C-alpha cells in the first residue's frame, strides 16, 4: 500500500475538517427569545440589583434529557426592575424559575415548563415573595453640616441623607399533609445606602466614596425609620445622582431587597424624582 506524503496528508485533513465545518454550519442558529418580569407579593416589579448580584433566571433544557446525559443549566441576568430578556436561545423545551435572589426559593409547583420556538418570543412572568419590603421613609435630601456636626466626624459640608423602613414578608406553603405552614424567615442582617451616576445604582454598582459598607440592622428595627448619611460631601459640578437603600437578610446568598431609585439632579437646581 502506498504511503501518503506530507502534502497529501495535510490536504486530506483539510478536506475532512472542511466537511465537518460545513456540517456544523448547517446547525440552526439560536433564534428563540424569552422575556418576563419578577413581581413581588404586592404585584409590583421586584426591586433588586442589576445583573448577577440580584440572582438570576435559571433555565434547564428538557428536550434532550435522558439517563446518560447531564444538561447544564443556564442563568439569565435580571435587571434592577425585575425584568429579564434573552434573544439567543435554541428552540427547545425548558424548565425555568427564578434562582438565588432576595426571595423565598420557588418549589417545583411554582416553576414553569415552556416551549421556545425560533422567531418567537415567550413572555414568562413570575410572582416571588421577597424577604423584605423596603420603603422610603422620606425623600432623600442634601443636608449641611457645620464642622464637628457630622455623625461620623466628617468635615463640614453638604451630604446626602436618606431614610427607609423595612418590613419582613412571610410565605405560607401547603405541606404534604395538606396543612398550611409558614416558612422560616432569615434574620435581617444589614442595610446600606447606594449613591451612583446611573439608575442602575445598587450595592454592586455605586460610588464607593459616598457609601460602601453596611450598617448593622436587626429584626427589632422592623418598621422603624433607619437613617443613612453619606461618608463624603456632595460634588456640585452639574452632576446627576441616583440613590437607593437596600437591606439584606442572613440567608445563604445574602442579597439585598431595595427601595425604588430616586434621582437628584444638581445641574440646575436641587430636586428629587422617583425613577419609574
Automatic annotation (TrEMBL):
InterPro entries: DUF3823_N (IPR024278). Residues 1-21 form the signal peptide. It holds the Pfam family DUF3823. Residues 34-128 form the DUF3823 domain. It comes from the Bacteria. Keywords: Signal. Gene3D superfamilies: 2.60.40.2060, Carboxypeptidase-like, regulatory domain. This is DUF3823 domain-containing protein.
Amino acid at each position: 500500500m502506498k504511503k501518503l506524503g506530507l502534502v497529501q496528508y495535510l490536504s486530506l485533513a483539510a478536506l475532512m475538517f472542511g466537511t465537518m465545518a460545513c456540517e456544523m454550519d448547517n446547525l440552526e442558529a439560536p433564534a428563540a427569545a424569552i422575556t418576563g418580569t419578577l413581581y413581588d407579593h404586592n404585584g409590583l416589579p421586584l426591586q433588586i440589583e442589576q445583573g448577577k448580584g440580584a440572582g438570576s433566571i435559571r433555565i434547564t433544557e428538557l428536550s434532550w434529557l435522558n439517563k446518560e446525559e447531564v444538561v447544564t443549566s443556564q442563568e439569565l441576568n435580571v435587571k434592577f426592575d425585575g425584568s429579564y430578556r434573552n434573544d439567543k436561545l435554541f428552540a427547545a423545551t425548558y424548565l425555568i424559575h427564578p434562582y438565588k435572589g432576595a426571595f423565598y426559593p420557588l418549589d417545583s409547583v411554582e416553576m414553569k415548563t415552556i416551549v421556545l420556538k425560533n422567531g418567537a418570543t415567550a413572555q414568562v412572568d413570575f410572582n416571588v415573595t421577597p424577604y423584605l419590603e423596603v420603603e422610603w421613609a422620606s425623600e432623600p435630601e442634601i443636608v449641611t453640616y457645620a464642622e464637628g456636626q457630622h455623625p461620623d466626624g466628617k468635615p463640614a459640608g453638604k451630604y446626602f441623607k436618606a431614610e427607609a423602613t423595612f418590613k419582613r414578608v412571610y410565605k405560607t406553603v401547603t405541606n404534604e399533609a395538606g396543612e398550611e405552614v409558614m416558612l422560616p424567615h432569615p434574620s435581617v442582617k444589614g442595610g446600606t445606602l447606594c449613591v451612583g451616576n446611573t439608575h442602575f445604582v445598587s450595592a454592586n454598582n455605586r460610588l464607593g466614596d459616598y457609601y460602601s459598607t453596611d450598617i448593622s440592622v436587626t429584626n427589632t428595627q422592623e418598621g422603624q425609620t433607619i437613617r443613612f448619611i453619606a461618608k463624603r460631601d456632595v460634588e456640585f459640578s452639574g452632576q446627576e445622582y441616583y440613590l437607593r437603600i437596600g437591606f439584606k437578610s442572613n440567608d445563604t446568598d445574602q442579597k439585598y431587597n431595595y427601595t425604588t431609585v430616586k434621582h437628584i439632579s444638581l445641574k440646575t437646581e436641587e430636586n428629587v424624582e422617583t425613577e419609574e
